[in-house]
Design goal:
The protein is an all-alpha fold and 331 residues long. It is built from 13 helices and 2 strands, in the order ααααααααβαβαααα.
């Protein structure tokens, strides 16, 4: 990717002048038509790349959604998860050998730099790619707001400590969501993204019994036996579907699974089966609601994605529009 592309800023400058002189509403920080003048084909380009990637591997829709989630939870939605380097977020424990889709983002960004250089942020590419991955998997279309700027540096420790863990109790996960402005309802709704995608044995093997007497009462026995066969003797990197009933279809089946003790991760099944307290009573009721009403789940999922996608950068973070999503722009 040529850095000289970033010097072609005529369109950007004209829009900045318009913002300063007129206060045009299209210059708002996040809006659905942020690139209407500066890069009107951004939607087509992202859509085509995501569609092509999912034709090759249907799972990529889930991977792009996870990439967006893991980006937003650390310093806001700033594309910092894409940065290379030993101190990068992609090398934090929750992301290593787990988060995928970087090459798809690279390909999208390369096309955008050829068409409208220095205009579309990497953070917006991630958000929009996730937004197409959901309906291409059978889920809801939701209006992705755009206008983010890219962070200047990664936060590996923030990724290591701030991302929700599949091993954590629900109360801890709710706290981490609250730390970025999301609530208990958002926990249940966004967990529903696990209706697509896969997980490695290392993330759920703690739920598998070593003896008959140590069987997990919150895990269906037949499913436990199948998982035991998959994971025994491996290195922990074998994968299975997060949604045992409809692995590649974005639907409400994830919540049905929880009712029958077929949630794969501790953090999934805990939404319904954890020891009762005020938090779990709330999550349990929501699981029951979404297991009955797929339309409500779809509607609430779109709303929660908009909330998550609007998590702001830390105060004082001006950001930039990266030319190459893997490195900050040269100074």
């Amino acid at each position: 990717m040529k850095n000289s592309h970033c010097s072609s800023l005529l369109l950007v400058c004209s829009v900045l002048v318009l913002c300063l002189v007129t206060g045009d509403a299209r210059c708002d920080k996040l809006s659905s038509n942020f690139y209407a003048w500066t890069c009107p084909r951004v939607y087509n380009i992202v859509q085509q790349h995501v569609y092509s990637a999912m034709r090759e591997e249907l799972r990529m829709g889930a991977s792009l959604l996870r990439l967006h989630f893991h980006d937003c939870f650390v310093n806001g939605c700033d594309g910092s998860i894409l940065l290379d380097g030993a101190d990068g977020e992609k090398f934090a424990l929750p992301n290593m050998n787990s988060v995928r889709g970087y090459e798809v983002i690279d390909a999208i960004k390369a096309d955008l730099e050829n068409m409208c250089p220095g205009v579309v942020s990497c953070a917006d590419v991630v958000a929009l790619a996730a937004g197409y991955g959901v309906p291409f998997s059978g889920g809801p279309y939701y209006n992705v707001l755009l206008g983010r700027r890219d962070g200047l540096k990664a936060n590996q420790s923030g990724a290591g400590n701030g991302l929700p863990s599949p091993f954590e109790p629900i109360s801890s996960i709710v706290k981490k969501f609250a730390d970025v402005g999301l609530d208990t309802k958002d926990v249940v709704v966004l967990s529903g993204a696990h209706t697509i995608g896969r997980a490695r044995c290392v993330l759920f093997s703690d739920r598998l019994a070593s003896t008959k007497s140590s069987e997990n009462p919150t895990l269906d026995a037949t499913m436990a036996a199948s998982l035991q066969m998959l994971c025994t003797g491996g290195d922990g990197n074998q994968t299975t579907a997060l949604d045992v009933s409809s692995a590649d279809v974005f639907d409400k089946q994830y919540y049905h699974n929880l009712l029958s003790k077929k949630g794969l991760l501790t953090s999934d099944q805990g939404l319904f089966s954890a020891d009762e307290d005020v938090v779990v009573s709330t999550t349990k009721a929501l699981v029951q609601t979404y297991s009955d009403d797929g339309e409500q789940f779809f509607s609430d999922f779109g709303a929660s994605m908009l909330k998550m996608g609007s998590i702001p950068l830390p105060a004082g973070s001006a950001g930039e529009i990266r030319c190459n999503c893997r490195v900050p722009n040269p100074k």
